[in-house]
Design a protein that fits this description.
It is a single chain. It contains four helices and ten strands; from the N terminus they run βββαββαβββαβαβ. By secondary structure, it is α/β, with parallel strands linked by helices. Strands 3, 4, 5, 6, 7, 8, 9 and 10 form an eight-stranded mixed β-sheet that branches.
Length: 168
Amino acid sequence: MSSSNDDLVAAQQIVEPSQIESGLIALWEKLKKENKTRASLFNLIVFNRASPRTDYARSIVQKVVGQFPCRTLFIAYDPHVKIPYLKTAISVVTPQGEESEIACDQIDIGVGGPDLKRVPFLILPHLVPDLPVYLLWTETLHPGYHALFESLCKLATRVIFDSESEEN
């Protein structure tokens, strides 16, 4: 685990998709002695195409978590890969710039190629039940993303578009 004055992030751990929940439980066991409280007001799904804007999207997520603790599921899609992949990683984050006792789960999903269609099935079991689901769509609604967008909208209580990414 790394810690600084700016933020606290448990070192991101790459895990198999089937090990996401058990991995998070293990991370929280390690954090017990630091008096961190697991909190989540809602689920936040973020879809982002891997690009220079990815860091910007992550900074938005950090600002949201800083004000409103939530479980974040961050999807980074790379449409230009030669070898398809689906990778998952987990971490625990606290609000930036605070010595907060509150911390939140973050699940990162990296995907390239045709495995994009598997993402909704991967996300569904990791949504915190009985909490709203917000979808932050940071890309132009390209026809190649339409099926994923439709699937994620069915899970979402609210959909938020990043207008900077829209061409129209």
